[in-house]
């Protein structure tokens, strides 16, 4: 049922996809869809949960937070974000479409994004002593969020960058912007080329 909903949301858009259409595509009764999900809004939430499970979001974030070396931590975070965006491409397309069509979905996603921002602060808090002048943990957190937005990932992928190139670029630019450049960082930034 979830696969049928995902396919229809991608093909027709959130607003044009009805519960009866999802039921028909899944080969079940309309009442089954309502029983399993309750509403299209809930289906979007289930798509998000399936994305997080497939991307192993919790496990991968724990790996980032367990990395003590500041530069390695930011590189691990870059790999985490690259995986999130690569695995979640379809879910993200549906979420963005649904946000424009349904204020309740938009409110749900606003809560998710606020939670994301708070949880990602844990990535930068231990970096406080290593941040380049005049950054604070607050401004480092702002930069981390700004540099790892979906739009940047999509722009670079659309211009022919591979996921590996994106991750190398993000890791290098985060090191440069948050920690300051060292001679060894230059190679990592140069290698983030289109593939």
Instruction: Tally the helices.
Output: 12
Number of strands: 0
Radius of gyration: 19 Å
How would you sum up the global shape? elongated
How would a textbook summarize the main sheet? none
- The secondary-structure element order is HHHHHHHHHHHH
What is the helical fraction, as a range of percent?
over 70%
Distance between the termini: 37 Å
Strand percentage, roughly? under 5%
- Name the structural class: mainly alpha
Low-pLDDT parts are 182-195
Mean pLDDT, nearest integer?
A: 90
The oligomeric state is single chain
Give an overview of the whole structure:
This protein is mostly helical. It has helices at 2-12, 19-26, 30-36, 40-54, 57-65, 70-87, 89-101, 103-124, 137-147, 150-158, 163-179, 185-190. Helix 4 (40-54) runs antiparallel to helix 7 (89-101) and helix 5 packs antiparallel against helix 6. The chain is elongated, with a radius of gyration of 19 Å. The relative contact order is 0.11. The model is unreliable at 182-195 (pLDDT under 50).
Keywords:
75% helix; mainly alpha; disordered C terminus; elongated; 12 helices; single chain; 195 residues
Could you provide a short overview of the structure?
The longest helix has 22 residues, at 103-124. The protein is mainly α.
Write the layout of secondary structure elements.
Blueprint: H1 2-12, H2 19-26, H3 30-36, H4 40-54, H5 57-65, H6 70-87, H7 89-101, H8 103-124, H9 137-147, H10 150-158, H11 163-179, H12 185-190
Helix pairs in contact: 1-2, 2-3, 4-7, 5-6, 6-11, 7-8, 8-9, 9-11
């Amino acid at each position: 049922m979830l696969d049928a909903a995902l396919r229809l949301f991608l093909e027709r858009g959130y607003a044009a996809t009805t519960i009866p259409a999802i039921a028909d595509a899944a080969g079940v009764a309309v009442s089954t869809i309502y029983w399993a999900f309750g509403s299209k809004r809930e289906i979007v939430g289930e798509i998000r949960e399936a994305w997080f499970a497939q991307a192993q979001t919790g496990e991968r974030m724990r790996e980032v937070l367990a990395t003590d070396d500041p530069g390695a931590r930011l590189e691990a975070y870059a790999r985490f974000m690259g995986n999130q965006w690569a695995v979640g491409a379809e879910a993200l397309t549906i979420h963005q479409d649904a946000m424009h069509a349904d204020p309740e979905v938009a409110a749900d996603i606003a809560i998710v994004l606020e939670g994301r921002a708070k949880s990602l602060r844990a990535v930068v808090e231990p970096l406080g002593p290593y941040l380049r002048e005049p950054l604070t943990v607050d401004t480092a957190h702002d930069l981390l969020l700004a540099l790892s937005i979906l739009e940047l990932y999509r722009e670079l992928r659309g211009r022919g960058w591979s996921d590996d190139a994106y991750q190398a670029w993000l890791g290098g630019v985060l090191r440069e912007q948050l920690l300051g450049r060292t001679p060894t960082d230059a190679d990592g930034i140069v290698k983030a080329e289109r593939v």
